[in-house]
């Protein structure tokens, strides 16, 4: 808040401050998307290398890839989320009272008790969601390993398969 009050005091318009904050949040959203794409590519490479050759044919291994449409949708969703997350702080900073902020000088403002309670609940909620997602990921990985173990039990050697074309009207 102090930074924005100084910018406003030095002559920046309120819309300039709003634009600055929105550009910052959009850049953070774009950076997060790029990091996510890098992790996705690394995950795909690791997944292809983890699949044992005897369990799956090469065409299936090549089919494990990143869908471009999904990447575009994910980047768009990340940018939209960043925009929505940046709107409230941007407009709050634009409504900052220059005089009040500059009068307070170096004194810190800790906020109200309600704000602190809200922030604590927000942190608890974020930790809860992180724990649930981590447990879901661990269970998914365990299930993935169980599928590989069950496929190893199937003996596919000396198995013959055939395809028969039957006339369409009678069957």
Rg calculated over all Cα atoms:
27 Å
This entry's quaternary arrangement is single chain
Largest sheet report: none
Outline type: elongated
How would you characterize this protein structure?
This protein has helices at 2-9, 14-50, 58-63, 68-94, 98-104, 113-153. 6% of the residues are buried. It is built from six helices and no strands. It starts with a helix and ends in an 18-residue tail after the last helix.
Give a topology summary.
Elements lengths: L1 H8 L4 H37 L7 H6 L4 H27 L3 H7 L8 H41 L18
Helix pairs in contact: 1-5, 2-4
Structural key phrases:
single chain, 171 residues, mainly alpha, 6 helices
Quick structural gist:
By secondary structure, the protein is mainly alpha-helical. The chain is 74% helix and 0% strand.
